[in-house]
Amino acid sequence: MTKRLAPDHCLGVIIDVQEFFLLQVEKRLRSKLKVNISNFARLLRYFEVPTVVTLERPIEQKGRLPAVIGNTLGGIAATFGKNFFDLTKEKKIRDHLGSLKKKQVIVAGCETDVCVLQSCLGLLNLGYEVFVVEELLFSSAQNVASAIARMKSEGAVVLTYKSLYYELIEAVEGCRHSEKMLEVYGPFPDELPDVATF
Question: Residues 6 or more apart from 60 whose CB is under 8 A from it?
């Protein structure tokens, strides 16, 4: 059966987007990641997709979610500290995810080959359909191809931000200005880009 995203079945997860990790990537990429993840947050907020933000401990050393992303999420996000690479090993996070009663998880964050990989494996093990947005992942490692391949082989769907953008729109009624979309979510933010910045 083909898995298709639908806003009312989704929750978002932003894993460990903290200054400590962002500083490990090239400055130009760091800036683009902040913009792209902020746009991702705007997209989730428009569709009222509840979002979980994780912060690796110790938070005082690794930092918080950049303000540009946190402010964009507004009230749709719940933030949790974590001690494990796999966010599902944290009972508070696991319980919160369960309380949302959603079965599709859209994932962004870092590190692709550690916390993202382990969290995706954990989410899949709990029965979630996992969708990983490739342009919204990053790592201090140069080569993360094997981590992405493993996520795919275990059942995660890897997609682009553009695919995510249009699939969420199509799930409602196929057009950003459709009556159904206006009725359910209000006017679509036209200035929200449909592709990630490269």
Answer: none
- Alpha carbons 97 and 129: distance in angstroms, whole number: 13
**Cα–Cα distance, 170 to 85 (Å, whole number):** 34
Whole-angstrom CA distances from 80 to 2, 15, 145, 148 are 32, 10, 28, 25
Residue 2: is its pLDDT beyond 70?
A: no
| CA angle (11, 19, 138) in 5-degree steps | 60
* Domains by residue range for the chain, with CATH: 7-184 (3.40.50.850)
E strand map for the chain: 10-15, 51-56, 77-82, 104-110, 129-138, 157-159
Q: Look at the pTM and tell me if it is higher than 0.85.
A: yes
9 neighbors 3 (Cβ within 8 angstroms): no
